[in-house]
Request: fold
Amino acid sequence: MVIMMSGLDYSLAPIELREQLSFTKAQVGALVERIRSEVEGVLGCVLLSTCNRTELYLSCEKGRELQPGEVLCAAVGLSYAPFARAFVTRRGSDAARHLMEVSGGLQSQIWGEDQILSQVKGAIAIAREEGAADPVLETLFRNAVAAGKEIKTKVRLTGVATSAAARAVEVLRGQMGSLVGKKALVIGNGEMGRLSATLLREAGCAVTVTLRTYRHGETVVPAGCGVVPYDDRLSAMEGMDIVLSATTSPHYTVTAEQVSQLGCRPSYVVDLAMPRDVDAAVGDLPEVRLYNVDTLGAERHQGEVPAEALDILDDYMGRFYEWNNYRKCLPAIEDLKTAITERVLTYPEVEEDLDAEDLIELAVGRAVDLLTGGLKEHISPEDLERCVGKIKVHTAVKSREREGSHDRKRIPFPAIC
Reply:
């Protein structure tokens, strides 16, 4: 089995390129199912799609060499050539380490951002629902999410905005001096739209959010915000100081023609969507300033990653590869069980008339002798004492359970010391 990934992000791919490979949750689900079932040699498939990055993770049969970027482009019917210079491909531990850094916000345009962790969790959840996630990617993503959570809770990465919405409010405040008393329309009531509306409200804006009529009763309106039907968004823009759009619509929510028809145009239009919600030509209109997730900008992190974060990454990388090494050993462990059983059965004592207790003691004793003799260069008295201690604890627990329930079934022997 080989882990590999290809990804394009803000560092090499401009927004015009990234939005061509930006997908909704439904599209992600369909793509991972198709790739897993139709691409020869693919054992598992997870697709991470955010505003700033699109990354395809594959686990493949040993010896199977694929370019995940080419696989993704082929799955959506696009030529790979325009994206070739933007994709970065990683394999093995490089791919695993990259995912853990992504989960911790260490690869984000807004360094240490908050949303990426839930996006990584969402990606593996979708793959699981579609039957596209194999045990290797499940375990890798689980460790990456755990590493990201620990970094978030234990390491202070930044003191600046940690989301695109927070960055937008930061930029608007810098441009307008103060947002107190300003009027803002937020188009979209998803996670990013609600966050944007909340932050604008906290900054002093009078905020109105759009709601699609068929979703009334299913959405949560941020406290203190007014509402307007999505279909009435054009008339609602009239007289607004700020219009911010953050939807998953495949079409523009705001066009240059619509804004040009307004008697009183907004001074600032912010587009936090991918693909973009706002026609780029809006920025060419007089007295209108347009920002998107790239032009909002964010100060690139120039310093070193804190040592605490590196230690966390090393820890979870170690956990993943310990698990992966044990997984690789499972076939050999089964062979070992068979070999030891056959070897024990050749001992002369087995032919004697032994009762069950004597036979168990003989089998266990010979098995332990064979194992410890073969591993004598790799074990120590301390290792064996820890193993004995864990077995005794396990035995005591099972004995108490058996006494409590009078269950006379066989007590399972611990699989790993």
